Amino acid sequence: MAVKAVNLGFQFPSTPSSFGSSSSPKLRKDRLVFRSTKVEQISFTESENSLIEALLGIQGRGRSSSPNQLNAVERAVQVLESLGGVPDPTKSNLIEGRWQLIFTTRPGTASPIQRTFVGVDFFSVFQEVYLQTNDPRVCNIVSFSDAIGELKVEAAASIQDGKRILFRFDRAAFSFRFLPFKVPYPVPFRLLGDEAKGWLDTTYLSHSGNLRISRGNKGTTFVLQKQTEPRQRLLTAVSSGRDVKEAIDEFISLNRNNGEKEPELEEGEWQMLWNSQTVTDSWIENAANGLMGKQIIGKNGRIKFVVDILLGLRFSMTGNFVKTGTKMYDVTMDDAAIIGGPFGYPMQMENKFTLELLYSDEKIRISRGYNEILFVHTRTDSSRKN
Hints:
- The chain has 6 helices and 20 strands.
- The protein is of the alpha+beta class and about 375 residues long.
- The N and C termini lie far apart (about 55 Å).
- Pfam families: PAP_fibrillin (PF04755).
């Protein structure tokens, strides 16, 4: 039986191909966008921020994303690659260090290990790059959790030119917290020949040293960061399902009294990512209480809950909201139906609750609604006016 090599953050070469022009793109000035709080400040250029915005809400580091989301990411990546970033990134000390994998265009391809780990939000995936040493190496790391441990896959590396790193995988091991020794990963790299080799082009490295775009020899695009901004950390907690309430409390605390204007319920489609409900009622009650599906905020105080059921059927419930105070809204939902194509089956339902808007921007909304349940929504349309 053939043994497949591990591929985490790189692709192994099949037919080498090049990406774009080797000439240096023309640089232009780009406005800085600051994400600041009392305890930290992360700066991105306007174009870098467009990529960060496009990545917010994408699950599984790209595994679960809509065509519109993928297109937005690809456009933002292409803009940054055309700008160029740091010249000759492989020769810059900014590329050195530990990078977190945020997004990859092909998380469902390559080795079974990559398919298993990279698309799972519960795990964190990192890449360490150390080129300016006597033993240049690039390492891919899957962190299962602080309590369990990690898998580290190492490759000997060399610099081919200002953008390209050549590598050959040569060792890998599991480090479990509950064992005093490492467990070798059972892949005979020496027997794999060229299958253990590959290359990685860095097509964009930010001047802050915090954002990197790389492309592998099988056409995969990777987006990595050294530091993630608070919204990214919140959504990571939501995706993994770990310590979400704590992450929400920290996020709201960081953004309290930051001088921004009072948040409003913005028009658009908002997908529910998480809620704090622990007791599950029937699905129809969950749908009527906004515990699943989408929430659509319309004009003139109109609101709608929409839940896809199956076979083209969906639950729809509309109502009104009225602002009653700072960040507070009274919501009345009173027009429910099961919709199938042009037909609808009306349902006699009514639901009234108070909605407290804890945080809202153009991409993320945190609120407290029915029965004091916390909600995290992310915008899924582009209706916001700039």
